[in-house]
Design goal:
The chain has 15 helices and 21 strands. It has about 475 residues and is α/β, with parallel strands linked by helices. The strands form 5 sheets. The protein has an 8-stranded mixed sheet with strand order 9-10-12-11-15-19-16-17, sandwiched between helices. The protein binds ligand BES and zinc ion (2 copies). One zinc ion binds next to loops.
Length: about 475
């Protein structure tokens, strides 16, 4: 899809169809009113109707902003996709109200997305041209152009993350993730370090190393750095990059294993954010750390009953090899805090627990941490980005559930109670004292992947976390 701005009068812009927002049917011409009423066109739903006589495409949209606008535009573009047309024009001012370019672009680009790389009958993708008429806009064209550029950069990163998450595990393993990181670094002038298993062993990262032991693919620790001139602060993003989670020897059920290619979503979201910072002119130094590992079975697999020593010296009793994400993240969090000084914010992203899906569903990111102030800041980013978060509270009574008879802590509690929170509390053991209030744990198990489409997400990966994080960073300047 190509989206461009035009300062021409809307009637002078050549295109196959025009997208018209309908807020109130009574405001339309008599002929149009008659037509839409005949069709029981409702402005309550995101109804669409294409009039082939006038080449007008009517889109019901009562509230022309935020998520309502994105969902309406998504509904339109999905219907337009089925038509045999090449170009669409629309005015940026609809019903006397200026539409926000970012909302428009998110609805268009995220709604249009589909993952068809593995379909044998994949048709040549149509190039769709969208022309946004800025003739009646009150915003200077230079600012509109900038908004368009930023919005397209964000949505293309979200769609990149969706592609990564959707790619099957046979084609996407730790080395491929590392190659993607190197490519992202090259395209965005980032620093990129990739460490292999030798490094993990030499540096006491045994928790992460052991998870990947039975895989034929070498584990990779990826460290990307974005460094602007005179950074205003330092942000660290750590992602779980399990390119496949079979559960290990505590093997998942057949049904439970389906879709576990999604277990790289946290690391992929980190890559997505890192891919956008330069374009947005981010003024913070940002580090992206990804633990790319495959959790498999085999004679060399790590076992329940094993005791692993993490990078910070803490010993972990493995009670369930399927609670592998927290082991990988434990060492990645340690690595981040050992390598990077004076951190202002440290967030981790992980499809960590099924319990988070039980608690919050498939749309909401479970958010945990020690600072109410920081959680409130993330809530603000949730409100502006439209990515939903739900706060899951720590309390003093839960940490004892992680006690081990043989080691410092267990990786999996005996009871399933508060499963998402005890996973967060496990990670807390690997957050240094000085960083406690700077840390948030984001469990994206539900939000990152869905086998049924919702909102402007299609089947599969959603790119969860990218827009939320970019909005968090953007809001820091306010
Ligand atoms: N990757 C899974 C969590 C998950 C489940 C993500 C469903 C997306 C959809 C994670 O590694 C896992 O298996 N967690 C276990 C933890 C348990 C053994 C303590 C779980 O949630 O069952
Ligand atoms: Zn697991
Ligand atoms: Zn996992």
């Amino acid at each position: 899809m190509n989206i461009k701005l035009s300062l021409k009068n809307i009637n002078k812009i050549k295109s196959d169809i025009e997208l018209v927002f309908v807020k109130n049917i009574k405001k339309l011409s008599k002929v149009e009113q008659k037509l839409l009423n005949k069709l029981s066109f409702s402005t309550k739903a995101f109804d669409t109707y294409f009039d082939a006589n006038t080449n007008k495409f009517y889109l019901a949209c009562e509230k022309q902003k935020n998520e309502d606008l994105k969902l309406a535009v998504c509904s339109a573009i999905r219907a337009i996709k089925k038509l045999n047309i090449k170009s669409v024009k629309l005015s940026l001012v609809q019903n006397d109200k200026e539409l926000k370019i970012q909302d428009l672009v998110e609805g268009l680009e995220l709604g249009f997305y589909e993952f068809s790389r593995y379909k044998s009958d994949e048709k040549k993708k149509k190039e769709l041209q969208i022309i946004l008429c800025a003739k009646n806009s009150n915003v200077a064209i230079a600012n509109l152009e900038k908004e368009l550029h930023n919005a397209r950069s964000i949505t293309s990163s979200v769609n990149m993350v969706r592609n990564i998450v959707n790619t099957p595990p046979e084609d996407y393993y730790p080395e491929v993730m590392a190659e993607d990181a190197l490519m992202i670094a090259k395209n965005n002038d980032l620093q990129c370090l990739v460490h292999g298993e030798e490094y993990l062993l030499e540096n006491g990262m045994n928790a992460m190393f052991n998870v990947g032991r039975a895989s034929r693919h070498e584990s990779k620790l990826i460290h990307l750095t974005y460094k602007p001139k005179e950074p205003k602060g330092k942000i660290v993003l750590v992602g779980k990059g399990l390119t496949y989670d079979s559960g290990g020897l505590s093997l998942k059920s057949g049904a439970g294993m389906v879709s576990m290619k999604c277990d790289k979503s946290g690391g992929s979201a980190v890559l997505g954010v890192m891919n956008t910072l330069k374009d947005l002119g981010c003024e913070y130094e940002v580090h992206g750390i990804v633990g790319a590992v495959e959790n498999m079975i085999g004679g060399d697999a790590y076992k329940p009953d094993d005791v692993l020593k993490a990078k910070n010296g803490k010993t972990i009793e493995v009670r369930n090899t399927d609670a592998e994400g927290r082991l990988v993240l434990a060492d990645c969090l340690c690595y981040a805090q050992d390598e990077i000084e004076n951190i202002d914010y440290i967030f981790d992203y992980a499809t960590l627990t099924g319990a988070c899906i039980v608690a919050l569903g498939n749309q909401t990111i479970g958010t945990m941490g020690h600072s109410d102030k920081l959680k409130a800041k993330m809530q603000k980013a949730s409100n502006t980005s439209g990515e939903l978060i739900g706060l899951l509270p720590f309390n003093r009574y839960l940490p004892p559930m992680l006690k081990s008879g043989i080691a410092d802590i267990v990786n999996s509690t005996t009871s399933r109670a508060a499963g998402a929170i005890t996973a967060g509390l496990f990670l807390d053991n690997f957050v240094k004292k000085e960083n406690k209030k700077k840390w948030l744990h984001l469990d994206i198990a539900g939000a990152a992947y869905s086998e049924s489409p919702w909102g402007y997400n299609s089947f599969g990966g959603t790119g969860a976390g990218v827009r939320l994080t970019l909005d968090f960073i953007k809001n820091l300047n306010k």
